[in-house]
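Hi there. Long-time user, first ticket. I'm pasting a complex I've been working with (about 747 residues overall). I'd like to know whether the download I got is complete or cut off, because the file seemed smaller than I expected. Thanks.
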Amino acid sequence: MKKTGAQIVCECMINEGVDVMFGFPGGVLLPFYDTLPEYPQIRHILVRHEQGAAHAADGYARATGRVGICMATSGPGATNLVTGIANAYLDSVPIIALTGQVARPFIGKDAFQEIDISGITLPITKHSYVAMDAASLPKIMKEAFYIAQTGRPGPVLIDLPKDVLQESAEFTYPEKVNLPGYKIPTRGHPTQLKNAARLISEAQKPVIIAGRGVVISQAGEELKEFAETCQMPVITTLLGIGSFPESHVLSYGMAGMHGSGYANRALTDTDLVVAVGMRFDDRITGEIKGFAPNAKIVHIDLDPAEIGKNVAVNVPIVGDVKAVLQALLKMVEPKDHIDWIHQLEEWRKAHPMTDIRDGAELLPQYIISQIYEATEGDSIVVTGVGQHQMWTAQHYTFNRPGDFISSGGLGTMGFGLPASMGAKVGHPEKMVWCIDGDGSLQMTIQELATLVQDNIAVKIAVLNNGYLGMVRQWQDLFYEKRYVATPLSCPNFVKVAEAYCISALTVKTREEVMPAIQQAMAHDGPFLINFLVEPEENVYPMVPPGATVAEFIEQPKKEVSSWQRRSTPL
Amino acid sequence: MATTQHTLVAIVEDKPGVLNRMASLFRRRGFNIESIAVGHSEVPHLSRVTIVVNGSNAMVEQVRKQLDKLIDVVRVSDITANDITVRELALIKVKAVSATRSEIIEIADIFRANIVDVASDSLTIEITGDENKIESMLKLLKGFGIREIARTGRIAMVRGNLANVPGETPTRNRARK
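Hi, the file is complete. Here it is re-exported in full:
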């Protein structure tokens, strides 16, 4: 049956089960938007800036495990997606970016709003297409969905010239893809599995480092069984948070730059690291020479290019995390490591993470622990990037994969609000908190309007310290407190929220924290709390740049108490 | 880390943007591509790309793995350690007056090169061989005055019965679900 290019794009999305997309229209996309009402199954959410569309698709994909769709028009619309696409690429998130393009006769002529978006995004997409005729669209769409969500997931971009959306072609949705160059390793090599099982049985002080690969592979159960069987302590990366229940007795939280002291001690002393679905990012390894210096390393990852990239490994296992763990579970004997666990518990006592000091100050750590108390952990928590992100990682207890959504690899300020919007759209039945900083929130604050227009009931906690806090912390610790370009004049966030018709209130003391959180949760619709927190609070522990993870700095015992707010909220 | 010359052979889908994607990976890691040669392979719609780069084994292996991840790259091998036949073709336009013409032709004969064009004051020589052979001839011709050189860059093939790239048969579909 003949259909227009625009209809074909919609038909393909419906075939793939798409029921929501985040987009922003423009001249060349008019044929698409004109067609969209024929497909009421697809809910279109109008963002206020295309970056918001890409992050929303990203948040949606992380929360649901399904492909997130974002759309932008040619030229500036497409370039506004770039940050969001890069973010999804670095964190292996399946999104499809549909971009409008000028009509074919104008391509290459520097036409109005023409930009080579497939060229620009070449290094930050898993794959990309320029659809040069409507007849090729079904194949392109089929491949795009397949590529985005299989193997190591990632963003795929499809550039759609205006006249391709208008021209008609025969539509049948292909059942299969034929991609001879696309390889998806499945199970690990039997010999390497055997080697891994042997190392695991020999180890005295083993640890598991779990990364986002566990979440993507939905291998949480297998990881738990594996850790319990071999009695191995589990440490996570930032994006591995939630892959193993943090309230589990074998959980030692996050390691790395702002990881727990005990996790970093464990990494320094361990004799075997079983790295599961993680990529030895510099934020977790610290100075690479001091990373697990006495350990053998078993690295399980789906992507062969990650093996041996940053650290040399003893046993490489290329395969799907779930399948590999299932195979390993059949090969390993139950073990106990009582002495090692005792040692770790000693370190846990010596370097406690949950210690929030008493006093009158409104500490960000306290607020996060209270959000955890109030939600009883039954919430998706999305963050921006900065100090608040690290405090959330440290002080909220995540017990389920997918509950913690954060920008890891790219570290994109402004990710929080639009991503939480995507998460809430994906899971309208769940509580979704966006914990953001005053700096990070202001980068994408326009999406408050989207929350209202589409009634997306995200609860926003702004940890407002009047600084670009993380950069200020580095200036404090490594640049002799020269606070250049970090004091931040903020708008009155309550008035801003109210201007968007979002209920909001400001919290200045500890006593007000819990009632405010409860009010936000009870409120029907989006809600914003502006927490005026201790301005110069630092995130500890911290592994200084260039140091090994063993050289973490802990919170100074006696903090100076004469804080002065450098810039007061208006 | 020691830098050595590597010869990579890639079988890629004959689609727009493939070379761009491949070159982009080398650029990111600061590799200077010594030569790159592209042509049809024995399979329709698949091209064969031979790339010569300098780098440490670990760095080249990392790029090879990244190349292998590109959807349009069907497979890629570093054949440096294999027993390989390498060839390059060069066209050399050399200044030739009546006094020097016969001497130049003699040199071309020694190298089993062909004279493919004769003009009033120049000769164009076509030579095939490995880089050393071409360099040697260029050295000898230099004195006569070289006007123009066009070189194809290296193409390479593993010796023996093995089809194409080691461990692979050219038509096997490696997509696994």
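A couple of notes from our side: Chain A has a mean pLDDT of 95. The longest helix of chain A spans residues 50-64.
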